[in-house]
Design goal:
Elements lengths: L1 E6 L3 H12 L4 E4 L20 E2 L7 E2 L8 H5 L2 H11 L3 E4 L2 E4 L4 H14 L3 E3 L4 E7 L2 E6 L4 E9 L14 H8 L4 E7 L3 E2 L3 H5 L4 E10 L2 E13 L2 E3 L1 H15 L4 E6 L6 H14 L15 H10 L14 H12 L1 E4 L11 E6 L4 E2 L4 E2 L5 E3 L7 E2 L4 H17 L2
Parallel strand pairs: 1-2, 1-10, 2-7, 10-21
Antiparallel strand pairs: 3-6, 4-22, 5-6, 8-9, 9-10, 11-18, 12-15, 13-14, 13-16, 14-15, 16-17, 19-20
């Protein structure tokens, strides 16, 4: 029998194991896949966005009214940097995003695995846990194979539903639900937004820099500046990922959601109007189709003109009526795309929703429903923005659980 069993060998599970083992505890990790830490390998486009230097409460979200920033304050960026430096990972900071200097996610996974080996943490892979029972102050962890593993304490670090191919199947929700925990409805986030707009297909493969805004039932809920990529079935890219939480949530609540793109965020509406008339005055004989050549990406021009209801685009641009210029500028400052939700969990980086944090002591990560049970990482109803925030949540909650589980 081990002191601690950790169910799930992802980021928070490995952090919890290392922390507890350093406290002298015997630790066993049970991992469903054939190798621990596989999801780490795909973070940050394979570079592993380890953390973010700008850790603030507004970058973390939950449907609970409870303050959720405590774990991040307890294990902040400074402690995260020190932890990884000790393992040999030097930071590379781009803006506020933090990567390993090697720019290889496998560097992060390799040093974590080496530390687990040096601390003699037992790791069993290809073990699917299907049940959890507490008998006479001992936890019995039942595997699908029928094998039963026992420990005094258990840490649930099974992850959410995002990217099921990397071991996230949601079974952890069901196990904790049977122990009395509440599962807040989940939905995919940091994911591609779906849109049936014909302009997406017209601009497929094109990237633009824009301010992307998420409107839900006509109200702007969030806006983000960054790169937007048009695809056959919608919109992608960092700016879209940041607002995808609003789009996905609206879809499951059956609310109308729209994305608008400000293609000229550096100029006001009136400044864009003046710029259009300046371009017309400079080259009045140019066709309307060529009016924005050199100002917008070539593949974006015709969709913008179509959306502005400007017909006969081969006529001279000095024939544009005032109302047509007004329509054009409205589209440039708010190119609209109705959405039909987002792509599913298979394509999402993170799951929103999960185990209610109202039932977790966030100072220890201990369950308030069962003794000597701790819950960490993405399985909880806390999610972060794109940019290392979700991994920071994993490191922080794993560390706190590991320390307090060892007391």
């Amino acid at each position: 029998m081990n002191d601690i069993i950790i169910i799930g060998g992802g980021a928070s599970g490995m952090m919890a194991a290392i922390t507890a083992a350093r406290e002298g505890k015997s630790v066993l990790i049970l991992e469903r896949l054939n190798r621990i830490g596989k999801k780490i390998l795909v973070t940050g486009n394979g570079r592993c966005n380890v953390s973010n230097t700008n850790l603030k409460p507004e970058h973390f979200h939950s449907r609970s009214q409870k303050a959720i920033f405590g774990p991040i304050e307890a294990f902040d960026y400074g402690k995260t940097e020190a932890f990884f430096k000790e393992l040999g990972i030097e930071p590379l900071i781009e803006g506020t995003k933090v990567y390993p200097r090697s720019e290889q996610a496998n560097s992060v996974l390799d040093v974590l695995r080496m530390e687990l080996e040096e601390l003699e943490v037992d790791v069993l892979t290809e073990v699917k846990v299907v049940g959890l029972k507490n008998k006479k102050s001992v936890w019995e962890v039942e595997a699908e194979s029928g094998e039963v593993y026992m420990a005094e304490k258990v840490i649930m670090a099974t992850g959410g539903l995002a990217n099921a191919s990397l071991g996230c199947d949601g079974l952890g929700y069901e196990i904790l639900k049977k122990l009395g925990h509440t599962v807040i409805p989940t939905y995919p986030i940091l994911v591609h937004a779906l849109s049936s707009s014909p302009y997406c297909k017209m601009m497929k493969g094109t990237k633009v820099k824009a301010v992307a805004s998420a409107y839900v039932n006509g109200k702007c809920e969030r806006e983000e500046f960054g790169e937007v990529l048009f695809t056959e079935d919608g919109l992608s890219g960092p700016a879209i990922f940041q607002i995808s939480r609003n789009i996905s949530c609206a879809h499951i609540q059956k609310k109308k959601a729209m994305v608008t793109l400000d293609l000229v965020p550096e100029q006001s509406y009136d400044e864009v109007v003046a710029m259009i008339y300046e371009r017309i005055a400079a080259k009045p004989e140019r066709s309307i189709e060529l009016l924005l050549m050199g100002f917008l990406n070539k593949r974006v021009i015709v969709p913008v003109l179509k959306c502005a209801d400007i017909n006969s685009i081969h006529r001279n641009c000095d024939t544009l009526e005032y109302e047509e210029v007004e329509h054009l500028v409205k589209v440039l400052k708010g190119f609209p795309f109705e959405t039909q939700g987002t792509r599913g969990y298979k394509y999402a980086q993170v799951t929103a929703g999960g185990i209610s944090v109202d039932e977790i002591d966030l100072e220890t990560m201990a369950s308030l429903k069962a003794p000597h049970l701790y819950v960490t990482g993405e399985i909880l109803d806390v999610d972060g923005d794109c940019g290392g925030y979700n991994l920071q949540w994993a490191w922080a909650t794993g560390y706190i659980a590991g320390i307090n589980c060892s007391k």
